[in-house]
Amino acid sequence: MLLLYGLLGGFLLGVGRLPVPWQALLLSIAIYVALPLLAGYITRKSVIAAKGKEWFNEKFLHFLTPVTIIALLITLVLLFSFKGEVILSNPLTILWIAIPLFIQTVFIFCVGYALARVLKLSYPDAAPSAMIGASNHFEVAIATSTMLFGLSSGAALATVVGVLIEVPVMLMLVKVCLRTKTWFNSNCD
């Protein structure tokens, strides 16, 4: 994803005839995708080297889990505080953004989940595959659109609405996965 994200983003923006400098696109990917990935990799390696894999899995990850949830909530609160008035004053625009996002997310999930069943994947492989496939990676989209077009742009609004839609839709799809767990082979190869 990291290698193809910039190329795919540039291609799709070019199709939409949006002039976006490649440097800005690559910089946003470096800052918001590559840097956190590298920081996570270095942290994992250094903590495991210092404390061991068991300590990393049992202590460090349990400490880090609430931190990531709190960081996500802070991000959402900040985004909605900047865009809350626009969202409330333009319900029809929000609906026009939300409906296709809902349909797209559910459709891609269904295709991925059905394909996983046809391929006889185990549930631990099928569920995450379908969920990741359906994800729109709005955290990167928000960062990129804000950096390229500014916080008051329509692109930033669309990405904020995307998060507003994606979070409950993904939670709904998690419920679907949990209820259909028996459709899949249970072995964890």
From TrEMBL:
Organism: marine sediment metagenome
Key words, A-Z: Cell membrane, Membrane, Transmembrane, Transmembrane helix, Transport
PANTHER family: ARSENICAL-RESISTANCE PROTEIN 3, ARSENITE EFFLUX TRANSPORTER
GO-annotated molecular function: antimonite transmembrane transporter activity; antiporter activity; arsenite transmembrane transporter activity
Recorded family membership: Belongs to the arsenical resistance-3 (ACR3) (TC 2.A.59) family.
The keyword Cell membrane belongs to this UniProt entry's keyword annotation: yes
Protein name (Swiss-Prot/TrEMBL): Arsenical-resistance protein
Keyword Transmembrane helix listed: yes
Protein localization: Cell membrane
